[in-house]
Amino acid sequence: MARPAKKLPPMILELLPTHSRDLVTAVAERANVSRPTVSSHIRKLERDGWITSIGTTHKTYRLGAKRLRLRALPISKDLDESQIWREEFSVLAGDMSQNVRQILEHGFTEMVNNVKDHSGGATLSCAFMASPSQVTLAIYDDGEGIFRRIRRLCGLADDRLALLELAKGKLTTDPANHSGEGIFFTSRAFDHFAILSGGLIFTHDANADWLQEEDGLTETKMPETGTGVFMMLARESKRDLQSVFDRFAAPEEFSFSKTIVPLRMARLGDENLLSRSQAKRALSRVDRFKTVLFDFTEVQSIGQAFADEIFRVFANAHPDVELIPVHFNESVKKMLLHVGVSEDKLEAPNPEQ
Q1: Per the database record, which ranges form the DUF4325 domain (predicted)?
Q2: Which of 18, 169, 176, 338 has its CA 20 to 30 A from that of 328?
């Protein structure tokens, strides 16, 4: 029985990587349709940018600038993220630069491994989408939800605090098998990185982490359970993965030793950063790092107790951890000086880059 016409374009794109020289014949035989019918669909795919061809009589076909592949797989302990990438998606990135391919593979395998080990879901859905200028990877699972799981297993008071802990890095609910570095570095390797789960959205964009509550910010509503991860990278990106790792490693070391704490994410709702308990949220686990940058972007003012807890009490108790405030306004600067932060530290160039 012949395949419906709407099934032919996906089949053409599916068979193209392994039938670049006999694409028309391969699709016609597989779909039980005529060669002219297949050729007609191929011409339309060429016009729309999904396919390119070389030659006239005996054409050789290649993937066009636009690319799309979707896969749904059962989640099990035997799920092999590297095999999925190699067999299903690597061909879509095959003609891109080595640094772009490496970042795409890293992001895909890290996020799929997280789904396998942490989601508790039944089904993994993956997508590779490319335009002439950008590649987007999407990973979705139908499990508990990443923020809800972190809040439950780490004993946090609110799902939103899970986003703050993710932003710091070195967070894992399975320390025997994971370092807690995957999301931190993956989010910084891509131009734009987003996690959607339980009505909350964690994004990393242009060296900053953000928390948003869904509430109409996205056109597509996420289910209450499950997690969606979206990673976007320019096809002509010059970024390389090693440089991302190097930004957060101590000189002459290969360890993850520096982090950034986005203090706007230490707030719940409209609260101001005033108390020692809020400071302790921000300080959770930062003693695992050698250098901690406290990012005051969008923080208009801070209380004396908040500043004192971080920059005097914690600093005195952990002299081996360097605390560096960045992106602060004059009001915040005055309070930092009040609790004893040196003028030199406040006037130093931003060390984040």
Answers
A1: 279-332
A2: 169
The 10s digit of each residue's pLDDT in 83-97 is 999 999 999 998 999
* Residues 255 and 208 placed together within one structural domain of the fold: no
pLDDT reported for residue 175:
55
What pTM was estimated for this model as a whole? 0.77
| pLDDT tens profile 220-230 | 455 567 999 99
226: left (phi over 0), alpha (psi -120 to 50) or beta: left
Comparison of pLDDT for 159 and 178, the residue scoring more:
159
Report the range out of 170-179, 186-195, 242-251 with the highest average pLDDT: 186-195
- Evaluate whether residue 353 is within a structural domain: no
